[in-house]
Description:
By secondary structure, this protein is an alpha+beta fold.
Amino acid sequence: MAKVIGKEKNIVSIEFEIPQDKFEESVQKAYLKMRGKINIPGFRKGKAPRKIIELNYGKGVFYDEALDIALPDAYEAALTELELDPINKPKIDISEFEEGKDIVISAKVEVIPDVVLPDIKEIEVEKIVYEVTENDVDEALKNMQTQNARVINVEDRPVAIGDTVIIDYAGFLGDEQFEGGTAEKHSFEIGSNTFIPGFEDGLIGKNLGEDAEINVTFPEEYHSPDLAGKEVTFKVKINEIKAKELPELDDEFAKDVSEFDSLEELRADTKKNMMKKAGDSELIARQNASVAAYVEASQVEVPDILVEKEIDYQIKNFEQQMSMQGINIEDYYKMIGSNMDGLRDSIRPQALVSAKSELVIEKLTSEQNFDISDEEIDTELEKLAKSYRIEEEDKLKEFKENLKEQSLEYLKGNIQRRKAIEYIAANVKLVDKKEETKDETDNN
């Protein structure tokens, strides 16, 4: 029988027993496991009876191994009986151990801490509104126009901002060419700021085929010490000038780039899509702000172990992202002048917020006990199948059946979490954004 004998914050002290008959079973299992390693004169290795081994080595020869066998099941049974949810390994002591009696075990168990949720009706969140103006629609149409521009060769005018030029160039520090400052048929857009300041400006107004000398100064923080802060000269030849020729924004344009017959129809559809996107972004922003405010108002002391686990999770994701980009994590540390400890410290504040958020969401989910329908589970399965690009009917059916069988609780957890977020966003008090006073603006 298990019982709680004390609690301090989220550390619960419990006491439970290993029944004498269960311990005897474990001693026998320990004997069968260990007998092959024990030598007894007159017996082949592994064939000595248990009683003989105990006479030679003492009755407790198998007790340590037997405890290792018996303890996990007894501990799990105690957790189930006391309805405890541990978040870390327990600290275990043997309180009473007498021959022929039940063994009494004491343990300190770190569990999910108590969470005090706020009155959701008292949580205020500023309204978030993403408007779509006619100017926004104009810009969207201009972007379509730019994306469908035709590139033409320019011969009758000099280089201008927005042109793409193809050049040969060589860089000189004094009379000597410097390493890395030479290229042929290099293409770039004027105004893209891909060169050091002054280089692109020096090309504006120059003509096709013209040779130009452009004097510039490398920035003081330039990565090459030999060039940082130095005045240099680039000798440049302009081989080609290319410009974008924009199509007219008219009905013919609408027909070319869409299924619509008129610019008016294209404009209306563009606005409708932009408004839907704005609405979706508005909803996500409102949900994020609502959850953040609700979590901040909740009371919970987050255990260090949960913060460290969250840091581990974030670092693992970060290392995977670096690996996908072909960057070794150790090289990354050198590049930023830090190390693993430094990275962990930088992540810790956000990890604390994330760990607290999870505790609050779990508490709310357990209190509200949101209903989950079969249709919602099927929708979740459909989304997962789509993410894996499984579309064939037979494979889709098999995928859904397997996942439902193996990961039903995981699926329910995802749905419960989403419902909790929706519940928070739907029940907080939305208030108009406060107008900033002049003093507040000056302070910012």
